[in-house]
Amino acid sequence: MSSLLPGPNSLVPFVSVDDMMRLLIDIGTERMLCELADAIEEDFRRWELFDKTPRVAAHSEKGVIELMPTSDGEAYGFKYVNGHPQNTRSGRQTVTAFGVLADVETGYPLLLSEMTLLTALRTAATSAMVAKHLMPKNAHTMAMIGNGAQAEFQTLAFKAVCGIQRVQLFDIDRHATAKVARNLEGYGLEVISCQTAEEAVQGAEIITTCTADKQYATILSDNMVGAGVHINAIGGDCPGKTELHRDILTRSDIFVEYPEQTRIEGEIQQLDADHPVTEVWQVILGRAAGRTSDSQITLFDSVGFATEDFSALRYVRKQLKTRPFFTNIDLLADPDDPRDLFGMVARKEQKLVQGLV
């Protein structure tokens, strides 16, 4: 007699928000950021194996909803993510996300996970991993302009991966700055709350910009950026949204994830379509130069790319082999006979009528 319980191929591990928090706490925030940075760099070293395409975006006046797919030929991953800056007015997150990792051979999902927290972690880990290759030697101070949900993760990633010791915070919302300063207490950083963006960048070897408004903006003006700094620009991530004055771009050596996507969404949407940029994976593999002088301005025009989410999902799945922070959910139909999907429903109906389930 066939069972009407979930079959062996029905169950998929699901990582909830609570599970992700437990996983992060169990591993430790800084350790997890370092390990994610390593996983992301490992996949950048395999860059040529991946299917690559700009994310599929549905834009509206209020924000954007995006799908971000990729595959290395063995596993397939995608992320659903939104960006709605006005959500905070109703107590909602600006960015939410979930993702799936699947087996290419069968098409069956291997993992379903929340990715709101995981996106914050992987974005910060990517920023720090790239900065490791581009920042000035012995950099110890970062300006963090934009003190929203990403700021603490960015700061701790730069501490753990790049060794910064001091962060200078600024946001037009002073409550946001106070929030970040409070959350970073006890992490061994010197935290300075600044009154202006100009004050925040003074003495900083690394400048991170991370604001949310979906508009052309000048968070950094040209006169705020001196020689020799590394700029980590992560706020410009869709058409019509930038943070840096165009003149900063023309003075900088620009590094990107995937040019076809960054030219649409990143800071370089302000420049000609043939403006030279360097792909990060080429720097990591030693095929292109990164920082070449003390006076050089390096700019990581980061918009986030699907391989980074793939790396993060792959990392989480590996952690679940030894950590119980997931629930198996009955996601896939698994009839006794793969050709008899209707019969599975009919047998369920019969059991219901008989009161046996």
From TrEMBL:
List where this protein forms a coiled coil: none
The protein in question is named Ornithine cyclodeaminase
Q: Which Pfam families match?
A: OCD_Mu_crystall
User: In which organism is this protein found?
Assistant: Sulfitobacter profundi
Q: What is the lineage of its organism?
A: Bacteria, Pseudomonadati, Pseudomonadota, Alphaproteobacteria, Rhodobacterales
Q: Which NCBIfam families match?
A: PRK07589.1
Which InterPro entries does the UniProt record give?
Answer: NAD(P)-bd_dom_sf, ODC_Mu_crystall, ODC_N
